[in-house]
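DOMAIN: structural biology
WANTED: fold as tokens
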Amino acid sequence: MDKAWSRMLLLFIVIVAAGCSNVGSAATENEMNAKAAEPSAAAKPEQRVISTTVAITQMLDALEVDLIGVPTSAKVLPARYDDVTRVGNPMSPDMELVKSLKPTEVLSVTTLEYDLKPVFEAAGIEASFLNLTSVESMNKALTELGDTYGKQEQAKAIVTKFDEKVAEIQDATANKEKPSVLILLGVPGSYLVATEKSYIGDLVRLAGGVNIAQGEDVEYLASNTEYLHQSNPDVILRAAHGMPEEVVKMFDKEFQKNDIWKHFKAVQNDRVYDLEEALFGTTGNLFAVDAIDALMEMLYP
């Protein structure tokens, strides 16, 4: 009786165990099938990014971000993008071409936002405009790009380099008399005065110079030589943009033809400097450290 009962109990346990095993296997298989059918949580949508300016392209190269579109420029772009589609001049990108590339993000700069935002909107393209008007705003843009594209370490390394240079310059100029500076931005046929709100104006500030164009809300002002002479700056910086060789010739002709320049202290003391376009762009760029070093030699000879 006991043996018979034991056999029946053993048989029952085996049957139940087998049933549980099958149910567990079926449940596990169902779960695996369900997970396989679901998109991976780690999978991210494809990033199709277009950069429309040289400065942004250089920044993204330093962050090791791949692009599907870059600006058309006479300047040499990073080798990473040799085979990438050129989408036109930074100030007038080919909107049809940009749209055809089906970008997830298009990047430009705030200095072009007023002119380009309506053009992008009319083409049905959503663009982001990065603020590169100062080293501080550029550092912020780099940090945000690093967060967006998972390149935080690369962004941190670049920002740290800029911060260390600024701290170094502040220590070096702490006890020195700050020279007054006039910054002229030249384009073929004319020139403007760069205020402290401009990128080059910010570099001058960081290098310890005092821009004569203070308290302005805009980056550039129309030139008035009488007003400029009253400020009588210690240093005059001439920045060429667009066609640098032609602009330098224009500046030379202006300084020779217009007699008032001869009465500027900076001219009399031979403290007029032409800024190299590669270092001194109209927006922030990765050459900021080299640009500040170059300025130091001009402001504190």
Confidence is low (pLDDT under 50) at residues 1-43.
